[in-house]
Amino acid sequence: MARRSRTRWKWITASLLITLTLAVPLSTFLLPSVHRWYMLNKLISESPESRLEGQKYFLSFAEKDPDVLAGGIERLNAAPEAAFRELVWTIDQAGFWERVRVGDEPWLRWLEWVAADGDPDARLMAPQIIADDAALVLTERTQRIVAQLASDADAGVRYNTLVAVAEMHGIAAAANDSAAVAQFIKTIHAATHDADPVISRQAWMFCGLLRQLPADESNTTTIDHAASLWARATVEQKGWTDRAKRLLNTPEASNHDRAMAAYLLVRHADQPTPQLLELIAKGPLAITTDNQLITWRSILGLQHVSPVSKVLPAGVTVGSGAGDIHGTVTASDFELLKGFGLSTAHPSLVAFLKKVTPEQLARDPLRRPVVLAAAHRGRVVRLPLETSLNDPASPEDDAQADRSANPSDPLLKLAFMEGLDPTLVASPIKLTITPTDTAHSSDPEMLRLALFRIVATDKLDVRPFMSLFLSESPEIRDAACITAFERLSTDQCAAIVRALWRRPRQDDSADQPIYIFDDHAKISGAMLAGLADVEPDALDRMTYDFSERWLVRDMMHLAQWMQNRPPPGKNVVSYMSTMLIRDDVPRSTILLGLLKRRSDIALDYLLTPRGDLNQDLIALLEQFRWWHVLNHHLPADAPRLELWGDPELIAFQVDLLRNWYALNRYQIAKSATK
């Protein structure tokens, strides 16, 4: 027995030794996994206290341990409702809540939860999140979520959904998904019946832009308004003119709606309505508070009835001075413009213009803007005032009347010049402009810029217009750069850049660089170099020379990027996007640079398709005439602005432009140069 006992203890001892030998490494590998499994399971526990422990554990280790992150995401599918919401929040707090990371099923489940949230501000996010994900837009489950949000009880949610649906339509159209396109159009059509007039108005705009009108209008709850009428006229719906005439002759309708009816009846009808032509022909004295908008819009709706003459009067020359970089434009140039580039205006408009008096231009706020619109649309300034268009105002005139009574009123000149189509004006134009003392010039920069747009050709001596590139206003400088890029040759653009960066020779001394003295010259030269892709070596040298001047340096970097030569190690797109929120930079110039290669970023900032209207937008486009800059970068199908229209018409057209961008935002972003 003793022998057997000793043998048994040997085996027991050996087993203990083996167990102890294996226990240490097994505990090293197994215990952390078991602990991790145990803690992660707390994330989906029924106990709130346990879930809180699991959340603390996840937030502490998810970034360090990939297995903790993967385990937390894996438990999303098994999580009950309360635990799911808390786990989503936890993963988001850790910075990992992304569809590509968590997968489609948890993501869609989360979107359904957000779309059903009791807080309208939370539900607002859902359609925008969907619109940001092109792959999800085309799924039936996502489209059901969108349909639910489109009929939400909260008007703000419905409005945001409508704008997001417009973006989704663009995604579906780019993917040639006809079923998804039809579904989104159906949602837009339904919104035209929305009880909220703002939503209905936007939906009608989308319908007109898409040229898709709702087939059944029997259950509409909104009155016929400007947007619905515009959509019908745009699509040329049968009977739209009858609707417009009824609206025009309905005194109870708003002035804006009746004026839109007049605008459309003149612009889009086969024959302008005689009633409106007769109203125009009566002249300014017939304008009253009740019919001002109708008359104004009717004039803007008139089209020219004959082509612009391309025959330049022989031997036309103004002055003989060569000009310098600060040269200005004299008033006599306006007289020259009357000699060419004119069309025959509609007889009703001619009759209107013949009845204009100086008082209506000077003191009459009711009639003055309509007269200016008529001068713009007519392209013919055959006013009784024309014989004295160049006469300076006398002291007696100043004592008796407002300065604007002077027939050389810059606004009248501007209206006329902006009515001319630069592409149809006679070319080449042999024009030399006598420089005058800037201090005594009666022509503001805006007028000089308008003249530059008209006469800029590859034969023009540009020197008298160089002062535009040195303007204190960045918007003027931007427009001058765009005009030069559009109308001048590459060699001329390069010469302007060199002139801006070098002072012209004044004596026998060597040329001196003008950029030492004028930052505006540096920036304008950089922008034109970036637009026209000229003078890269000089641009690089400027960037080096002014590396210590942060604003000039940044504009040079922007120009290099415009030439597809970004400075090494610098993310120009990200940096310039951040600069847009600063007040100490020429914001419009940054937008000009972004429009060259990343128009989606610039248009997002300008048109804010998902947010409230950018309060500076209308002033920028209209008052500063930056519309000419933006228009250069828009495709042919984008809505246009009537710069001489009434404020309500301009606001309407800006809304159209914003909605057009929402429909095309995906495609524009997709095609932007990265």
Q: What does this entry look like structurally?
A:
- The structure is a single chain.
- This protein has 674 residues and is mainly α.
- The protein has helices at 2-41, 48-61, 66-74, 81-93, 99-102, 104-115, 120-123, 125-131, 134-137, 140-150, 155-174, 178-191, 197-210, 226-235, 240-248, 255-267, 274-281, 292-301, 332-337, 347-354, 358-362, 368-378, 395-400, 410-419, 445-455, 474-487, 490-501, 519-532, 536-545, 550-562, 572-579, 587-597, 599-607, 617-623, 627-632, 647-671.
- The N and C termini lie far apart (89 Å).
Please summarize what this structure is.
This protein is mainly alpha-helical and 674 residues long.
Shape: flat
- How does the helix and strand content classify structurally? mainly alpha
Number of strands: 0
Distance between the termini: 89 Å
In DSSP terms (H or I, runs of 4 or more residues), the helix count works out at 36
Whole-number average pLDDT? 81
The Cα radius of gyration reads 34 Å
- The percent range for strand residues is under 5%
Give the uncertain stretches in residue-range form.
306-343, 380-407, 426-443
Main β sheet profile: none
Helix content: 55-70%
Question: What tags apply to this protein structure?
Answer:
single chain, 674 residues, 0% strand, mainly alpha, 36 helices
SSE diagram, text form:
Elements (H helix, E strand, L loop, with lengths): L1 H40 L6 H14 L4 H9 L6 H13 L5 H4 L1 H12 L4 H4 L1 H7 L2 H4 L2 H11 L4 H20 L3 H14 L5 H14 L15 H10 L4 H9 L6 H13 L6 H8 L10 H10 L30 H6 L9 H8 L3 H5 L5 H11 L16 H6 L9 H10 L25 H11 L18 H14 L2 H12 L17 H14 L3 H10 L4 H13 L9 H8 L7 H11 L1 H9 L9 H7 L3 H6 L14 H25 L3
Helix pairs in contact: 2-4, 6-8, 6-10, 8-11, 10-12, 11-12, 11-13, 11-36, 12-13, 13-14, 13-36, 14-16, 15-16, 16-18, 17-18, 17-20, 18-22, 20-22, 22-24, 24-25, 25-26, 26-28, 26-32, 27-28, 28-30, 29-30, 30-32, 32-33, 33-36
